[in-house]
Design brief:
CATH topology of the largest domain: Aspartate Aminotransferase, domain 2
CATH class of the largest domain: Alpha Beta
Strand order of the largest sheet: 1-9-8-5-4-2-3
Shape: globular
Helix content: 25-40%
Bound molecules: pyridoxal-5'-phosphate
CATH architecture of the largest domain: 3-Layer(aba) Sandwich
Strand content: 5-15%
CATH superfamily of the largest domain: Type I PLP-dependent aspartate aminotransferase-like (Major domain)
Low-confidence stretches: none
């Protein structure tokens, strides 16, 4: 019998439903209830984040970040070209001009060594993306940010439970944004988190979160009525989503252990001469940990990548490419944002393939997929 291995299957644990039922029993389903607070406390206690706010998506958390940094028309924001649309779009909505950074030679992350030449008098923020949960070199990046007085917003969408020099990602920027989309390690279906590390942004972050009102202060009994005090929007997820998310958070160690075992099995299976002659395995710099968000390969050519995806598909294995470079998108082209040499990002866009990796995948599945890849490469010299 031919089995089908999907690219992703969202993680649903046995006791998830009982948490959702508990939220229903609480008869408080809107945002900022018991489960939202349990999730936020979990992040603050586990990772030492100063303040966290659960959001409906990482995109929303990025939009909150753009509002908090008061990004205005004409401000320049540096974003990698090899990332998801939201990393740039959240800032564009505030009127920013995007300056695209190329990827590093060794990882799809932005090349920190080429960052300084992108900084101008109008630059106000840098948005590093920790691709595949592998950290950007944050010491170098924060040094530049300090030198030029720039905001740093970590797009840590893929980086839950990952570290840089032993410190959790999300702790380095003034702000950081995580995603709990169904494709991420920990999921709420749709969901996100804003991390506020900078004292200056603490109060305003809850106001923007709560539709421009000081409702959070009222909720804590600090004021006797609440009203409209600033800009904002509706960024709170329902308690149903928070309850589902919380059911995974309490099992995060087990989820991560499983994913790392699967990731390592791919790596060990494919780290053989026949493969690494033709395909590059992921590189994890010594300063970064691996949260096993993704297992990707970089083929020598785009043609080889397409053939490999098709070959796997013929064998009912769904592997997939990833980002199309943002600097080359229809939207970016219309803006006349001049982008400098972007070479590595284009290579990742053309040649990178992501393999199935999810909680329910088995080691047998990983061995099967690895064998298919080895067979394919032996046929395609
Ligand atoms: C998933 C992802 C996002 C968007 O997350 P949502 O929760 O779907 O809004 C943004 N940036 C990166 C790098 C991502 O991987």
């Amino acid at each position: 019998m031919k089995r089908t291995i999907p690219f992703n299957k969202p993680c649903v644990l046995d006791d998830s439903l009982s948490f959702i039922c508990k939220a229903l029993d609480n008869q408080k389903l809107c945002g900022n209830g018991q489960f939202t607070q349990k999730c936020q406390s979990f992040f603050e206690e586990t990772y030492g984040f100063k303040k966290t706010l659960l959001t409906t998506s990482c995109t929303d958390a990025l939009e909150m970040a753009a509002m908090l940094c008061d990004i205005k028309h004409g401000d320049e924001v540096i974003v990698p070209s090899y990332t998801f649309v939201s990393t740039a779009l959240a800032f564009v909505r505030q009127g920013a001009k995007i300056v695209f950074a190329d990827s590093d030679k060794d990882t799809p992350n932005l090349d920190v060594d080429k960052l300084e030449m992108l900084i101008t008098d109008r630059t106000v923020a840098i948005v590093p993306v920790h691709y595949a949960g592998v950290s950007v070199d944050m010491d170098k990046l924060m040094h530049l940010a300090k030198k030029y007085n720039l905001w740093v917003i970590e797009d840590a969408a893929q980086a839950i439970d990952a570290t840089y020099k032993g410190q959790p990602l999300g702790k380095f920027g003034h702000l950081a944004c995580f995603s709990f989309h169904e494709t991420k390690n920990i999921t709420a279906g749709e969901g996100g988190l804003l991390v506020v590390n900078d004292d200056r942004l603490l109060r305003r972050s809850e106001i923007i979160w709560e539709k421009g009102t000081n409702r959070s202060e009222f909720f804590r009994g600090e004021v006797n009525k609440y009203g409209w005090v600033d800009t904002g929007s509706s960024f709170l997820p329902s308690e149903l989503n928070a309850a589902f998310l919380y059911s995974q958070l309490i099992h995060i160690e087990e989820i991560q252990k499983k994913r790392i075992t699967l990731w390592q099995r791919y790596y060990d299976n494919l780290n053989i001469e026949d493969v690494i002659d033709k395909i590059k395995l992921p590189y994890i710099p010594s300063y970064a940990s691996n949260n096993a968000h993704m297992f990707y390969l970089v083929c020598k050519t785009g043609n080889l990548r397409t053939k490999l995806i098709n070959y796997l598909k013929e064998h009912n294995v769904h592997a997939t490419f990833h980002y199309l470079c943002l600097h080359d998108s229809e939207f970016a082209r219309k803006q006349n944002w001049n982008s400098s040499d972007i070479i590595n990002a284009v290579r990742y866009s053309d040649c990178l393939i992501r393999l199935p990796l999810f909680y329910d995948l088995s080691l047998g599945d990983v061995d099967y997929i690895s064998k298919l890849i080895i067979n394919f490469l032996n046929k395609n010299e």
